[in-house]
């Protein structure tokens, strides 16, 4: 039914592309109601939105604006925020967006005052850049550190400073978006002028670069800069911006994904998602099928193959391959909030052109289980990583402290909860989300009130409170409601339909004031498997992920400080094998063994045989804070559990066998073992991670150990590495100054597990020697891998 509506939606869309005189958001998104047309009523989203405004108003605008003034040659009015130095200015753009959105959604005058103040300051900075940096800065409104050195050389095609900087275009994209949003949501015309001038700066800056140089430039994270230029085209109607958007589109992603080729394994996830937001926006504005195909296929493969139970994706900020999906269990840094923020943007864009329920099914899951869960319910702090590791926890930001990317997107997330509850297409009204709210559809003279206690109730009541008009009401039939279970009454009379889960039920009639539509959507329990690791399961009631608090021990850094890596939950990683393990021979019906707790809606006990049993209570994951938790559970059959124990036994046997074969062993990074082996080093360092010590060298540095051979000449060198490392990892291994191996571990494993490599040692290097010196030497502009231990071992 919905697919048959697409031509009429496209026709409507094209007629509204440019210079729309409707509500603010219709200027860019013609299916969307203005935020001030939708009022949130009491419920979890209104509570979160109001708390977020309180938090936002604690930030110091002059500190956020300091990088912009500094780069423009103006005296900052306050010191810039620390933390994430080198990316100064990125949060300021997010903050401007948040002020505009919250003003539009609530009419909060302080938000408007702050929005207007920031726009005026950015106007001054843009004017100062034109005066103080005439060779490269006309139109520039960014706050990127060392802008003068960066952009003056970049404009000439010299990328040396660009590639040694931290994602310049990513940084600028936040300011582009903030200025656009100040106009889009806040009707600030000066913001529009600054935005378009800033876009002109980017076009001029890159005008002499070849297409090859542009693609080389795009190898670095650049946010949704192509989206910004599409927006400029739609705002102005000037095709130069559309051409710029295409030029800023990364072919390494556009070409394969448009052909249905998934090349995302181990790519940095949030580098990629905004690119596809831009691709889809390009597809909206002209007949560019490859852009639309790429964004559609990307959404499908990420949502269906790479998304966790709560709607997030990535581990260690990268998309997992099939083989590395176990990292979700082994690692502490699960999906980051920014990823889901951008996936929701992409979902809204795709739905605008293809209004299918599957997009809203995903949107709802991610909204409740990820976005809503990333705000602390008392102090309002934001969350970066949501770990899926059993019995780990999450860390929160504090106002005026951390300046992470997920603080920036977090500022926006909670200000637009009303944005996608309802959408429209000509004479049709889509009711997408079951959220207590009121809609003022001014064009139709219709006001609608939705009353629901979802997810604590299985019904929603929709009342026409004002007006009379003929239109089509489309009610989402969610994918989590059983076939035949979605029931509707109109003014007390049953409305018959034949739709199935993940669709829309169409009601086309002349509506009048007082009409009441009541919807019933029974919620049942079910499980979802961890992508590519099916023995780990998560429990749901309807679309709501259920988790369990497991304790509050060692929540180190629960509220982050201003350190560079304060976003990591650095407390003890509790052993995965000591977490509760569920034993059941019919896992597909295990959700039926959730027992409701009387008087506590959406709280359950689990009546399942359990290893490492604990008296745990399942509850909505979005309500779990300040605690360790279970999101995924290892669930095995009786025979599967026996196999699991046998596997542990085999691992133990291998450990013992290795010990028997070992002639000498260095626990690298530990003081006494390194001293015992007469370590020599230069440009090396050591540390502790993954519950073990390591040492590495960098940029032609080295470290070496004197190791005993036991006078044996048939030995191998066994080196243990960590399988997921950043940057270039190229180095040589020497035995007594004879090169044994040249190693390139750069992106070799891409899995968060220890990896052992064996290097056979020629007999000539060992013969008649009681000791040899084993040396690791980093290549120029590279580092060795972090070495966790070194062994001389007998062959198997």
Automatic annotation (TrEMBL):
UniProt keyword Nucleotidyltransferase, yes or no: no
Domain of life where this protein originates: Bacteria
Coiled-coil intervals: none
Domain Glycoside hydrolase GH146 substrate-binding: 658-793
Residues spanning the membrane: none
Keyword Hydrolase found: yes
Pfam families hit by this protein: Beta-AFase-like_GH127_cat (PF07944), DUF4986 (PF16375), DUF6805 (PF20620), Glyco_hydro127M (PF20736)
Signal peptide (residue range): 1-24
Every Non-reducing end beta-L-arabinofuranosidase-like GH127 middle domain range: 429-523
Record-annotated DUF4986 domain positions: 551-633
A Gene Ontology molecular function term of the record: hydrolase activity
Region: Disordered, residue numbers: 669-691
Keyword terms of this UniProt record: Hydrolase, Signal
Biased composition (Basic and acidic residues): 674-683
Domain Non-reducing end beta-L-arabinofuranosidase-like GH127 catalytic: 38-418
UniProt-recorded name of the protein: Glycoside hydrolase family 127 protein
